[in-house]
Input
Amino acid sequence: MAVTIKDVAREANVSIATVSLVIHNHRRISNATKNKVRDIIERLNYTPSRSARGLVSNKTGNIGFIITNDHFLRNEPFYTQIFIGTEIESKENDFYVLLSIIESDFKERDALPRFILDRNVDGVIVAGKVPEPLTEKLLALKIPVVYIDYIPKYSKFSTITVDNVKGGYLAVNHLIELGHKRIAFVGGDIEHPSIRDRLKGYAQALEKAGLKIDNALIETSEEYPARANGYNAAKKLFSVNNGNITAVFTCNDAMALGVIQYLRDNNRRVPDDISVIGFDDILTERTNDIQLSTVNVPKMEIGIEAMRLISALIKDEKLLSKKIILPVELVERQSTKKLL
Amino acid sequence: MAVTIKDVAREANVSIATVSLVIHNHRRISNATKNKVRDIIERLNYTPSRSARGLVSNKTGNIGFIITNDHFLRNEPFYTQIFIGTEIESKENDFYVLLSIIESDFKERDALPRFILDRNVDGVIVAGKVPEPLTEKLLALKIPVVYIDYIPKYSKFSTITVDNVKGGYLAVNHLIELGHKRIAFVGGDIEHPSIRDRLKGYAQALEKAGLKIDNALIETSEEYPARANGYNAAKKLFSVNNGNITAVFTCNDAMALGVIQYLRDNNRRVPDDISVIGFDDILTERTNDIQLSTVNVPKMEIGIEAMRLISALIKDEKLLSKKIILPVELVERQSTKKLL
DNA sequence: GTGAAAGCGCTAACAT
DNA sequence: ATGTTAGCGCTTTCAC
Output
């Protein structure tokens, strides 16, 4: 058996209560005793049992991380990086992170993640868009929750998002500065708050430049913003506005790839004929293809902030709801070019 | 407070011991009682507290997953998929998975993952190549361990690997069947058992076809098998064997990309001039680039098997060491072509 | 400033 | 076939 609080107490000639108080750095304990006990803790290499602690404190020391399979399995490093961020920051807050991948079409009758039914988490981080029924069930639980990269309707949960409006603005402004005037927007799932905001940024940039917003240049759908949908959107867009559009801003990098693929299949060069800019910055060294201009989202940071926030929420009951918005950055690479 | 075993016992008019025995489906309990208690458990929506269980059983119900940052951060979905596999299977075995990302240059003086120091796991899964000092420390702990995709030296740990020799054979045999005779091997970190085995498969295929093994066609290093190293390896290879080589087998997909990049930069078309085949099958829909021929590794399956094995190891003390080898599959796509 | 003791929810040995 | 009870390692209240 591992060393317990009793071993420390015996060795230090104090009671286990004293050891416990030393561990929690209670002021009632004299410095002399504290030092003595701490030395022995170190010498014996003692670490408190999480089970015993959990039993008495009714806390688990675990945080649940919920994400849909859509998001996590679509081998995108986007949410993986966020997950790693929470993991890294969890050390600082002495939590462990438990992952649960739920169905993208989570229904009301579906069971909540096992760690919730098991009462094995003190709080939950929800990453990406999730079905409403999940949010409703979470709401009923009265457990601390932080949403990442998604703002659920009708709920006062805390959220960590990025400045999507600003990102959209930066991307489109970049195109405008390159001389583009006929700039299309390609997005999937326009119900998603992030995508809506990116479109809003698009509109703002055009407006500020005195360019009018042409709905014929805006192609959105209710689909997941994936590569294939980018391809289809480009097809619709370019078969109507033939020869007109000189640049495309897509709501994410995956769709940008689909657009580029379509353009190539139709003998349009990127960026020579058409400039394309994405969002997210997920494609770094994984491809030999053109390096995509995009808007960087601080993925690791998002995870870190989420962990900090859920931790604060758990420790401080009064803290109710907090919305954190992280900044984004324009990344100019090779898929955008000055209009000749 | 949540419902406890006492609530169930009271409601069922039995002792808490009986409830406990029913939960563990002990034969001493009559079916009548079992049914009665189970009904009430369901009705009250009771789940046993993991902390309380852990405290008495001296088990945590957690499995640690250790991986180097090299492997996990290099935004490859390879290990992410494996991790998800363990996560999926963990439900069946009623475990939770805790992740720990360690430094690639883990030294003897470095601290073990927090979940080990905290005694917060019952067993550990180690994914990918890890430094020897980590293995030595793990060995000293006498905790169940399963290695994934790596076979540590001097140790009797259980392992889950894939049939790398067979995979190498399949890849190279595929090239041979396409008429290629001057086939190069590109690999990084030849100390890695998997890479060595893939090279072995390469040699076997050549031998079987009566082709002789030419060391000038084999380019390995001690580096991490990444894209950039693939590029450099191709540079060395093709500047010496100019116009000679018609096909390349790389030890993984990342290096294949580097090789293809080099070839393009030097005006060699893939697959028209040179065929390239990789290993791992990690690049699916993330790129507009050429679809790589490769050898598929069942990533999710690996995770699942690892979880099953660690679970067996924990539950059955007698089970000591077991080596599982999973099959691989040739995936013919567009980067390999019949030699004209 | 420190100790004694109750009790968190459960398992398992022992009693009945 | 079921109940009683000790005890897992810790926190916390109350005494001293």
